[in-house]
Design brief:
The radius of gyration is 14 Å and the shape is elongated. It contains three helices and two strands; from the N terminus they run H-E-E-H-H. It is about 45% helix and about 10% strand.
């Protein structure tokens, strides 16, 4: 199961797309669509900038991890909106 377009847009609406590093509300360096070093891959550093394509690629990779965790954790069938809510 994959996150629907509606689910993707809900996450982007909540997180926003930011193409340069910033500190989130907890003071963690973040870039793209809520990407932090904890997600793996690119480690945001002060002054980093990425293109929109890079932000969307990071988002897709991060999202796959959450989708796998939800699928591994939930042992009953989910409606699309339920899956989207758990991933988001």
């Amino acid at each position: 199961m994959k996150t629907s377009l509606r689910g993707l847009l809900a996450i982007v609406n909540e997180e926003a797309v930011v193409l340069s590093t910033y500190k989130d509300s907890a003071g963690v360096l973040t870039i793209g669509v809520g990407h932090t070093a904890a997600a793996g891959g690119l480690v945001p550093k002060p002054g980093n900038c990425i293109a929109i394509e890079g932000a969307l690629e990071l988002f897709a990779r991060d999202l796959e991890k959450f989708e796998r965790h939800v699928l591994a954790s939930v042992k009953r069938p989910l409606a699309q909106h339920e899956f989207d809510a758990l991933v988001g």
